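Note to self: keep these together.
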Amino acid sequence: MMISHGRAPLVFIRRGVDRDERRSVLRGPDPRSAREVPTAVARVPGPCHIRLTTSGGEVTFPVSGSAERSRQRISPLTLVPDGPVRTANERPTACRVEQVRSRDRDQARDLVATYFTPHGLDVLGSPANLDVHLRTRRTSSITLGDLHYGTEVIIRPTRVPTYYKINIPVRGCSVSVFGADEVESYPGQAAVLTPIESFTMRWRGDCDVMTVSISTEVVERTLEAVLGYPPEEAVRFAVRFDLRTGAGLRWLRSVAMLRDALDEGAPDLVVRPLEDLVVGQLLTAQPHSFTARLSGAPRPARPRTLARVLRRIEADPAASHTLSDLARTAGTSVRSLQAAFADHLGMSPSAYVRRVRLARAHQELLAAEPGDGRSVADVAYQWGFGHVPRFAAAYRERYGVPPSQTLRS
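Structure:
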């Protein structure tokens, strides 16, 4: 069956469905509340794949919840009309594959929030059709999810997330709203949501979305490795992401490779390079605020007041940089300084100081020679970190490994 949105067609391929149902008793805290519900057992539906066909080729994905659970070591779902369902597997890698399902709005909202960010959920369509399915594959820096609501909904994040989210409709369409701007997504065109911008999303009832969430830390770490210095501002991506041809299609293929590897329980030796490939392909395929610099362009000019503060921090990041001191350097008020950092860099002054300190400590650890007597604590104190365990945690979050590993290598 081929479904077209008037743009890139989708081909749905389903192999035979064979499902047995039996009656089982689910008991709550009170045995008298026991009730019988249909339970899916033993044989589950055969795999259903979505093939995204474009002028540049095609990419095939299995639909959420339809993969061969025996191969993935995931127990069959119990279908409870008014309650949540959660299953998880234990992997030999750092990845976890989990799935949840609920027909209750509040339960569904809270379950989905555990994988993404707290949000409000408004049901615009028929509440009786609400049937939330979410299947995720999570590594330390990337979460791949298959999400379906079953009815038209509006999703309003109540907290700015700490990751970049790429919504890829494989069926139906969604609309992302940024202030007065609206961006429609459909098969072949995704939406890249930047964590420093507030937004809402409206999903149609027939919308099935594959989500790719990438931590801000791994995006900035990848940029730092290429630029040779930490990005001094948040990376802002263009929202519309064409996946039908060229670099966009290549990025989509890299996501498919990572997804297949996680579904097959591949070891970290395979998964880690694929994570790097997904992030690197995103930074080259989708325009963003650092695209010109990746091609050799110099840093953009900053307002003079802000530039003075940045020079002071970078000249001596280990110094005690209080907000009042930095405001005096800028010749402005503390509030105006904070607003300038938020507007131009997308972060607070203290976050920028911490970022520069971590970058200098990272360079110091990389340059250390074996047997020179340097320790992680020495490097932490040298660059203004007074609490070594907190430094180690921040370093690991930023660079993906503990500082001791960088020092040993």
